[in-house]
Design a protein that fits this description.
The chain is an alpha+beta fold. The protein folds into 3 domains: about 30-280; about 300-360, no CATH class; about 365-569. It is about 35% helix and about 20% strand. It is built from 20 helices and 17 strands. The strands form 3 sheets. An 8-stranded antiparallel β-sheet has the order 1-2-3-4-5-8-13-12, with no helix packed on it. α8 runs parallel beside α10.
């Protein structure tokens, strides 16, 4: 619950964040008048007038598709299903733009459960970060507009959620999948909340999200980030996505969308001026920073245990051993059969075997390394649960203009998309980055390595790289080197083999190392100069017994582009 001191602290945070906008703007290389961009997007969308454009039609005072089987009927029908919050936030926005459809919409929304209740079957997800703000904002705005009775802690939860983002940032870091929906819910609050603090906090958090998105957007409008909750589809194409429409609206970089997306409909109808966000974009970034808090910190104190657990789950802590008791209590309190995708029996396992598969789902308290220069980016999360089972994390990614390159552990299929979209990595690497260079080491925990021969847990590592995507490809020793436009990348492979059409390495119990270096014509001259730089590189690896530690240690080193990165594991 927010006290006077918390409100003051929140105002200080907002003032500091505004200062960051001004500093970032002083280094900017691009500026867009977002009001003009939003108007042009709305004009285009009115002519398209399909599903995602209905919010824009409501904003413009134009009739919506309320025909039998049309937009409104389909949306209202979907409210009965799981993940109804994706639909409800759009209906909320329509309600606040026009009252013409109240008789259709309100009777469907009134009986909806906007937060979990004991003794009521729970079919919705109230506890992941994006779902949480969609439910909280919708319940709050319906109570404000219609006077409907809501859970007594609704406003306290909402204020706490906003304060968490102001203080610690986002748990679903850099998520091209989920950030746009988080943004849409925030924009509903920023545009419609009558409480000054809630409205201002929502605007600040929304701008923080978009600013962080632009920080990892290169100068061709591609957003291929290290991510806490990602999906392959967001890395295979740079422009045909929910988030890419947001980037274009803010900066005009990338490709103009041919219609509205779920989130661009919200952004283009927002009364907030985002010129400061657009001005924060810069073509060069080289930073390292910490974010988040420990999963079991007292940041959620003051709430009932089941609410604290939901907030812990929103940070990915579903079966983390440190909160196993809270998980067991809350699943019992709500009579849940299990959390989607993870068996409930893991909640009470605190052994090392269980921890190998559960600790790494947590998405808080970590360190980012980000390098960007014109068309290239290289981003990673430093030493994030190395050796542990991976969930939806992309622990390192490089962008070469509109191409994404990364390594991934697990079975290697000819169709990369056949991999499980939930446990993206069977074991996470230890990534160490220094500017435009990174060393990526793999050494799966014993439980994973032992399971490899007897289960579907595969410790192979493959490189997501298609020669056909590049304008030019070269090689040297174990390095594969590519150019797209004026952007360059080189990846050192632990082995030079291929499997089902992908570069990959299968080694003893998954233990291996890779390296990457990026550059462009500004930093390295022509492509031949970049190749020559790579040819001067050196690498080393050893796996030896260490008497002082009384165990075998794994050592790897890469020296390239004047940088040396090494680690003894």
């Amino acid at each position: 619950m927010k006290r006077k001191g918390d409100i003051f602290s929140s105002k200080v945070k907002k003032a500091l964040f505004c200062l960051l906008f001004l500093v970032a703007a002083s280094f900017t290389n691009v500026y867009a008048d977002t009001e003009d961009n939003k108007a042009a997007h709305r004009a285009m969308a009115v002519n398209v007038a399909k599903s995602n454009e209905q919010v824009i039609l409501a904003y413009e005072g134009l009739p919506l598709d309320d025909s039998p089987g049309g937009y409104l009927e389909q949306k209202l029908y979907s409210v009965d299903g799981a993940n109804a919050d994706f639909t409800i936030i759009s209906l909320i926005r329509i309600l606040y733009f026009t009252s013409d459809y109240d008789d259709m919409i309100l009777p469907v929304l009134e009986p909806v459960l906007y937060w979990a209740e004991q003794g009521v079957e729970i079919v919705q997800n109230y506890y992941s970060e994006n779902h949480m703000i969609m439910w909280l904002s919708s319940g709050y705005l319906l109570k404000q507009r219609e006077g409907w009775e809501m859970d007594s802690l609704l406003e306290d939860r909402l204020r706490h959620y906003l304060d968490l983002k102001l203080t610690y940032g986002f748990y679903e870091w850099n998520s091209a999948v989920y950030w746009p929906y988080t943004l849409s819910a925030l924009l509903n609050l920023a545009d419609f909340a009558e409480d000054d603090d809630i409205r201002a906090d929502a605007e600040t958090v929304a701008k923080r999200l978009l600013t962080e998105m632009l920080r990892l957007t290169n100068d061709v409008g591609a957003f291929f980030p290290v991510s806490g909750r990602g999906k392959l589809s967001k890395y295979e194409n740079a422009y045909t996505h929910n988030h890419s429409a947001l980037i274009y609206l803010l900066t005009q970089m990338g490709q103009a969308p041919s219609g509205a997306t779920p989130s661009s409909g919200f952004l283009s109808t927002s009364e907030i001026n985002f010129n400061d966000v657009a001005a924060s974009w810069t073509s060069a970034v080289n930073i390292s920073y910490n974010f988040g808090h420990h999963i079991n910190d007292s940041v959620h104190s003051g709430f009932p245990r089941q609410d604290r657990t939901f907030f812990q789950w929103s940070a990915g802590g579903y079966y983390h051993p440190d909160i196993a008791d809270d998980t067991a209590y809350t699943t019992s309190y709500y009579d849940l059969d299990g959390i989607p995708g993870i068996p409930i029996w893991l909640a009470n396992i605190s052994s090392s075997i269980g921890a190998t598969f559960s600790r790494s789902s947590v998405l808080s308290q970590a360190t980012f390394d980000i390098y960007k220069n014109e068309g290239v980016t290289l981003s990673s999360i430093h030493a994030f649960y190395p050796g542990y089972f991976g969930w939806q994390q992309f622990p390192w990614v490089a962008a070469v203009d509109d191409i994404a390159v990364w390594t991934q552990s697990g079975p290697v299929y000819s169709n990369w998309g056949d991999r499980d979209d939930l446990n993206i990595n069977t074991h996470l690497p230890r990534v160490m980055q220094d500017g435009n260079v990174a060393l990526i080491m793999y050494w799966p925990n014993t439980e994973i390595a032992m399971a490899d021969p007897f289960s579907d847990v595969d410790t192979d590592v493959a490189l997501h790289w298609k020669d056909s995507d590049f304008d030019e490809v070269d090689s040297y020793d174990r390095w594969i080197i590519g150019r797209k436009g004026n952007s360059y990348i080189a990846v050192y492979r632990h082995r030079t083999g291929t499997k089902n059409g992908w570069y990959y390495s299968q080694t003893n119990n998954g233990r291996q190392y890779w390296a990457v270096v990026v550059g462009n014509s500004t930093t390295h001259g022509n492509f031949e100069d970049f190749v020559s730089m790579v040819e001067q590189s050196s690498t080393r690896e050893s796996y030896t017994w260490n008497w002082s530690k009384w165990r075998t240690v794994y050592y790897a080193r890469v020296t390239v582009d004047g940088k040396t990165i090494s680690y003894t594991w």
